[in-house]
């Protein structure tokens, strides 16, 4: 029996996923969290075979949660089940540790298949994600600007785009304000932009914010 941790700030989504999973003989929901911080606490105290993680959550979003899991439970497979389409976040997150990425619009059979695959320690590549990966290999120069950022740069980018101050970002990520400023400079250079307002406009345009 594979033990699954559900992480989503919407109880109705967790209820739906739990009801779906409970129909399967080989899967069991043994933990639920409404935030990234709560999920990290559960992972520290319990053993799970897979985490199903949303991106958009209060206090610690899915990107931050995935990054912290690298240090807390690096072997825990994570399936990101998100309201964002694959072309917005998937490639970045797959590069940085998640085992699979699936839109919440996927049908129930595919969601179960993805959870089962990830819980078995394998990668789950949806048809949409496979096409994105193929396009990236065939046309590497056609990456979106945010896809050129490193894991940490992408974290800082999202926070800057939402209007967080360097001080708040430094506190959340446990780094210095000077380091945040360094990341900001790199991000602006890589994305050929001049200000935080440019980052916000870009993030809204590509659906990277709530």
UniProtKB/TrEMBL annotation:
UniProt cross-references to InterPro entries, sorted A to Z: CheY-like_superfamily, NreC/VraR/RcsB-like_REC, Sig_transdc_resp-reg_C-effctor, Sig_transdc_resp-reg_receiver, Tscrpt_reg_LuxR_C, WalR-like
UniProt GO BP: phosphorelay signal transduction system; regulation of DNA-templated transcription
Keyword tags: DNA-binding, Phosphoprotein
4-aspartylphosphate modified-residue sites: 54
Domain HTH luxR-type: 142-207
Domain Response regulatory as annotated: residue spans: 3-119
Listed GO MF terms: DNA binding
Keyword Phosphoprotein annotated: yes
Origin superkingdom: Bacteria
PANTHER family per the UniProt record, alphabetical: TWO-COMPONENT RESPONSE REGULATOR
Protein name, as recorded: Response regulator transcription factor
Organism of provenance: Methylophilus medardicus
